[in-house]
Amino acid sequence: MAVAFGVQAALLLGLGLQRGHLNPASAGAGMRTAGWLLAVAGLGLYPLARWLTGRPWTQAEVFGMAPEPTALASLGLLMISHGPQQHMRFFVLAAIPVLSLVLGAATLWTFQD
Questions:
Q1: Rg of the chain over CA atoms, in angstroms?
Q2: DSSP string of 16-75?
Q3: Distances (CA, A) of 56 to 61, 66, 77
């Protein structure tokens, strides 16, 4: 997944360097709210979930180090920054985080965790 997220980072960087393509003001209110919830979940709440499972602090899954919180935060930031005429771009950029989340869920299901 590191390679896939590297590609995702390059795509986002390229898009961010183009003027006017990442504009938080252009997203709808519902999309912005859902995006902020996902971003906060990926950045803050996901690492704290380790307490619910009884794992030590050293096993916390954090943004940038583990795929699931990174994917959640990425999806949230994409939802915040895409406008109404940019649905196709959103779906292309969201494909890698969504596939990462599906792969993580399938892994947990396989291990019955």
A1: 15
A2: HHSTTSS-GGGS-HHHHHHHHHHHHIIIIIHHHTHHHHT--GGG---TTTSHHHHHHHHH
A3: 11, 16, 29
Tokens of 92: 């292309």
Q: Hey, what are 85's tokens?
A: 């005429």
62: left (phi over 0), alpha (psi -120 to 50) or beta: beta
Measured CA to CA, the distance from residue 19 to residue 10 in angstroms comes to: 16
pLDDT digits (tens, 9 = 90+) for 44-98: 888 888 777 788 877 788 888 888 898 999 888 888 877 666 677 778 888 889 9
pLDDT for position 19: 62
Rounding to the nearest 10 degrees, give the CA dihedral for residues 84, 90, 91, 97: -140
Spatial distance between the Cα atoms of 12 and 29, rounded to a whole number of angstroms: 22
DSSP state of 86: -
